[in-house]
Write a structure and sequence with these properties.
Blueprint lengths: L11 H9 L4 H19 L2 E3 L2 H8 L11 E5 L26 H8 L3 E6 L28 H8 L5 E6 L5 H7 L2 E4 L19 E6 L2 H10 L15 E4 L10 H16 L3 E4 L9 H16 L1 H6 L5 H8 L4 H23 L4 E5 L15 H9 L3 E4 L12 E4 L5 H11 L9
Parallel strand pairs: 2-3, 2-4, 7-8, 7-9
Antiparallel strand pairs: 1-3, 4-6, 5-6, 5-10, 9-11, 10-11
Protein name: Asp-tRNA(Asn)/Glu-tRNA(Gln) amidotransferase A subunit family amidase
GO molecular function: transferase activity
Keywords: Transferase
Length: 424
């Protein structure tokens, strides 16, 4: 590159190119430190950030496809050299001394692990951790991956790791106006991640360019599949899931904009009607989470009696075995029916990423348009291609068949090839 990289204006791919051309990772680290000092006091994205630790890591990075790329890590993923507190008093300062598998993979690829991003307690509750939305400090950045999405949106890191059990990756991506991805369930190892739901927990990804998600797909070894060179001729179904009434005017405007761009690029766009078997699928998602959460948080409740009603109620009164079996049966049936739709000529689904713009206050928002797809275990990418008249982002989701993550990423890149500028 002809001039030094300006971190907060760059993408992960540009960082890789800069370091490969001779820019020392230390220069990237110093630029990030300066950016954090500038915007973090207002955004409050980090649960842990240590400039000296970052400098030491930048000075000893291994060679790899992500060398020098800055990554924030959600504070429910273990890190060997930083505390992992889960936003819980019980784990304040806890330092297990090992990395989660996904963090270990990124380090081996040369990534610069920037710090720990704030999360709701155990990535489960609906009360935000004090992070603000970079677009409007009075609004939530979403959750539970609050700090991860805000860090990328504010230009403090190029990439971030989140997690999703309901809508914890896609919804914050929509609210903060960045690309967010919930991969196929278990496409990225969850070893070293705080458990909530074995059926739904998924490691998520954030970036300001869809092409950066392709870098991460390579690093994490996503399955190979046919990827489109263009959107022309692809059959893309529009779906509001089982709750079309939940989308407000802003969410519908984002969907109409997305459908219009797809049509202009030559895609065949049509209204997709889901089979009747999907009726009640959101309740099945709730039952699965409540049943699996009861075992996941049993030890926390017993060891911490004042943990909170969200957890104690879940442990005290989980769904019955009959309810759980019915929910799992419906989930299995609907996954098969969704596979049938893709086998029958459906290429992708376009769906809302959120019911509207980020709401004001400390709540993390409504996961209505995320939970079903999480239970279906399919890959989802938020595309931040729409802004309201007030400048607030509203995303749309591209959804694909299980294990065709690369196809969804490429479609997102074709739908919106330009990178998102950092806020502030």
């Amino acid at each position: 590159m002809d001039k030094p990289l300006t971190f907060h204006a760059g993408t992960a791919r540009q960082m890789v190119e800069a370091v490969a051309a001779g820019t020392p990772p230390m220069a990237v680290a110093e630029d990030m430190i300066a950016r954090v000092q500038q915007v973090e006091p207002a955004v409050n994205a980090f649960a842990f950030f240590d400039a000296d630790r970052l400098r030491a890591e930048a000075d000893a990075l291994p060679d790899g496809p992500l060398k020098g790329v800055t990554v924030a890590v959600k504070d429910v993923l273990l890190t060997r050299d930083m505390p992992t507190a889960h936003n819980s008093a019980r784990y304040a300062g806890s330092q297990p001394g090992i990395d989660a598998a996904c963090v270990d993979t990124l380090r081996s690829a040369g990534a610069l692990i920037a710090g720990k991003a704030r999360t709701t307690e155990f990535a489960s509750t609906t009360v935000g951790p004090g992070t603000t939305n970079p677009h409007d400090a009075a609004r939530t950045p979403g959750g539970s991956s609050s700090g991860s999405a805000a860090s990328v949106a504010a230009g403090m890191t190029a990439l971030a790791l989140g997690t999703q059990t309901g809508g914890s990756t896609i919804r914050p991506a929509s609210f903060c106006g960045v690309f967010g991805m919930k991969p196929t369930w278990n496409a990225i190892s969850r070893e070293g991640s705080k458990m909530y739901s074995a059926t739904c927990d998924t490691v998520g990804l954030y970036a300001r360019a869809a092409s950066d998600l392709e870098l991460l797909a390579d690093v994490f070894g996503f399955d190979g599949c046919d990827v489109p060179d263009s959107l022309a001729g692809l059959r893309i179904g529009i779906s509001y899931g089982t709750t079309p009434e939940a989308a407000d005017a802003d969410s519908r405007a984002a969907m109409e904009n997305g459908a219009g761009v797809l049509l202009a690029l030559g895609a065949e766009v049509f209204d997709l009607t889901l089979p009747e078997a999907f009726d009640g699928i959101l309740e099945s998602h709730r039952v699965v989470l409540a049943r699996e959460g009861a075992s996941a948080f049993l030890n926390e409740v017993r060891a911490t009696p004042d943990l909170g009603a969200f957890f104690s109620d879940m442990v005290a009164a989980p769904p019955t075995a009959i309810e759980a079996r019915a929910a799992y049966r419906q989930a299995d049936l609907c996954r098969g029916l969704l596979d049938d739709l893709f086998e029958g000529g459906l290429d992708l689904i376009l769906a809302p990423s959120a019911t509207g713009v980020a709401p004001e206050g400390i709540g993390t928002g409504d996961p209505t348009y995320n939970s079903m797809w999480t239970l279906m275990q399919v890959p989802v990418v938020n595309v931040p291609m729409y802004r309201t008249a007030a400048g607030l982002p509203v995303g749309v989701s591209l959804i694909g068949r299980r294990y065709e993550d690369r196809r969804v990423i490429r479609a997102a890149s074709l739908l919106m090839p330009e990178a998102v500028a950092p806020v502030g």
